Amino acid sequence: MLAIDSTRKMSFNRTISNGDLAIVYARHDNMKPVTVSEGSVLQNRFGVFKHSDWIGKSFGSKVFSNKGGFVYLLAPTPELWTLVLSHRTQILYIADISFVVMYLEIVPGFVVLESGTGSGSLTTSLARAVAPTGHVYTFDFHEQRSGSARDDFEKIGISSLVTAGVRDIQGEGFPEEFAGLADAVFLDLPQPWLAIPSAAKMLRHDGTLCSFSPCIEQVQRSCETMQSNFTDIRTFEVLLRTYEVREGKMESLEIDGDDGSNGSLPPCKRRQRSDGASVVSYPSSSSVMARPCGEARGHTGYLTFARLN
Ligand SMILES: C[S@@+](CC[C@H](N)C(=O)[O-])C[C@H]1O[C@@H](n2cnc3c(N)ncnc32)[C@H](O)[C@@H]1O
């Protein structure tokens, strides 16, 4: 996934080999992870695709079926993996993940501690953020879940960046060997306040903590606990609005303000409304329209960040 070569440099110009994992992309809502295996075929409504035709092509290639149908073969980036992984638990999605990586200030070389591992959705992004010299240590008390996550990390090529351990973090805390060494800690646990004192012990001075909780009562209790060792405690709820972009016919259109002078819209007439607003009219034409998606995801949870005193 991260295409880290033996010199630990990242390369994004990779070709597909036998045994690689590829994301078979038909549409943004129709993707599937497939392990490339010479001699195997992929069959879907677009026809039959021979894996042997894929080997040697670069990630991103368009490949054709026996019926002339096509799909794209994409590299399993963290963004795509989050969309196709098997959900063994609730997972973090892209909006929350991006915010976490940014607000925890994660950069290459960082040591990050995480619990619980869950389905490993966040872990893959943490791994890319710390690569090529950092490391993510992720813990879950559910042995089978931790094992499945470890298998996934191997499959998508990040096992050199992640160690998945089995441990009750709420009961035992993080292992003592990490005391003072973690640059950032992330918690997605049912009772995070039980693990916060251990997180404080693990963090280096000025290190950052984030706790994800679906309920505000969990947030309140976590914040109370954080007050003993942390400063700059802030809670966010990340709400994402997705738009569907479609080509269609517009009869006539009136927009406040924009005169289309940046070239993105066809020539138009501008007039002043009685309330002072400037309205721009476009003649009827075929155009690209964007409207909010009906299936937009609402509340996922609250993200509480804090910095060690
Ligand atoms: C919601 S999932 C985490 C999902 C993960 N953030 C992701 O993006 O895929 C919560 C995980 O915490 C684990 N867990 C619950 N209590 C725990 C504890 N005391 N110690 C370690 N892990 C725990 C659960 O087994 C579960 O896998």
UniProtKB/TrEMBL annotation:
Source organism superkingdom: Eukaryota
Subcellular location: Nucleus
Binding site for S-adenosyl-L-methionine: S119, G120, S121, L122, D140, D168, D188
Known catalytic reactions: adenosine(58) in tRNA + S-adenosyl-L-methionine = N(1)-methyladenosine(58) in tRNA + S-adenosyl-L-homocysteine + H(+)
Alphabetized InterPro entries for the sequence: SAM-dependent_MTases_sf, TRM61_C, tRNA_MeTrfase_Gcd14
One family name in Pfam for this protein: GCD14
GO CC field: nucleus; tRNA (m1A) methyltransferase complex
SUPFAM superfamilies: S-adenosyl-L-methionine-dependent methyltransferases
UniProtKB keywords: Methyltransferase, Nucleus, S-adenosyl-L-methionine, Transferase, tRNA processing
Entry EC no(s): 2.1.1.220
GO MF term set: tRNA (adenine(58)-N1)-methyltransferase activity
All copies of domain tRNA (adenine(58)-N(1))-methyltransferase catalytic subunit TRM61 C-terminal, residue ranges: 69-307
GO biological process: tRNA methylation
Cited PROSITE patterns: SAM_TRM61
Segments for region (Disordered): 251-283
Family per similarity comment: Belongs to the class I-like SAM-binding methyltransferase superfamily. TRM61 family.
Name of the protein this chain belongs to: tRNA (adenine(58)-N(1))-methyltransferase
Organism in which the protein naturally occurs: Medicago truncatula (Barrel medic)
Gene name, Swiss-Prot/TrEMBL: 25496409
